[in-house]
Amino acid sequence: MYSILRHNLIETAMSKWLIAYALLFAAVSSAFFYISGSAGKSLVSLLNVVLVVIPLMGTVFGCVYFYSRRSFIEFLLAQPVSRPGVFLASYLALAVPLAVAFAVGLASSFLVYGDAILQELGNASALLSAGVALTFSSTAIAFVISLLWDDRMQGTAAALLLWLFFSVIYDGMILLAATALSEYPVETIVVGLNALNPVSLARVLILQNLDIAALMGYSGTVFHNLCGGVAGTAAAITMLAFWVLGPLTLGILRFRRKDF
Q1: Quick one: average pLDDT of 115-141?
Q2: How far is CA 219 from CA 88, 194, 216, 227, in A?
Q3: I need a surface site. Which of 41, 54, 123, 179 has the fewest CB within 10 A?
Q4: What is the value of pTM for the model shown?
Q5: 237 in Cβ contact with 227 (< 8 Å)
Q6: When comparing pLDDT for 188 and 88, which is higher?
Q7: Which residues of 60-90 are buried (b: 16+ CB within 10 A; e: fewer)?
Q8: DSSP line for 174-212
Q9: Number of helical (H) and strand (E) elements in the chain, helices listed first
C-alpha cells in the first residue's frame, strides 16, 4: 500500500491543476482581505467560497481521477495486493493533496494578513478544519459514486447532482417542510436532518462563534439555537467525521466486491 500511495502522491502532486487549485484560494482569500479590510468579514466571504468550491472540486476531481486511473487500478488488482490497500492508496493520493493545496492557499493569505487573522484565530482555524473535512468527505463520496456507475458521464452527472442537492436544494427543502409543519415542534427533527448534510455541518462549525444566523440557513440556525457553544461544535465535528469515515467505509466494502 505504501509504495502505491507514494507513487500516486508524487504523480498527483506534480499536476498543474493542483497548483492552480492552491493559487485560486490564495488569490480569492487575499482579495477578500484586501477589499474588506476586516478579518471577520473576509472569513464570512470565504465561507461561501469554501462551501461551494470544495465539495464541487472534491466530487468532480474524485470522479475524474478514479475513472482516469481505472486501467491502472485493474493492473494493480492483478497483482498480489490487498484490495482495501489499493482503494485507500488511491483515495489518499487525491484527498491529501487536495486538502494540502486548500490549506496552503488559504494559509498563505493568513500569513500575509497575520495581524488581522490573530483577532479571528478561532474562526480561521474552524474555516481551515471545515474545508479539510469537506475535502476528505466529498472525495470519499466521489469514489463511492465512481464505483456505483461504470460509465464516466453517468458517474460525473450523479456527482454534480449530489453536490447541487447538498449545497443548494437540501436546506430549501427543510425550510419548506418546516414552514408547512410550523404548527408542530419540528426543531429536534431539523437538528437531526442537519446531520445528513456535510455542507450544513461545515457551515455550522464555522459560524458557531459568529452572530450571523442568516448565513447558516434554516437548519443551521435551528442547530445553533439548540446546540450552541462547545457542545454544538463537538457535535458538528463528530458528525463531520462520520461523513468522512462513512463514505470511506462504504467505498472499501464496494471496492472489495467490485468486479473490474
Answers
A1: 83
A2: 33, 6, 7, 12
A3: 179
A4: 0.86
A5: no
A6: 88
A7: bbbbbbbbebeeebeebeeeeeeeeebbbbb
A8: HHHHHHHTTTS--HHHHHHHHTT-HHHHHHHHHHTTSS-
A9: 13, 0
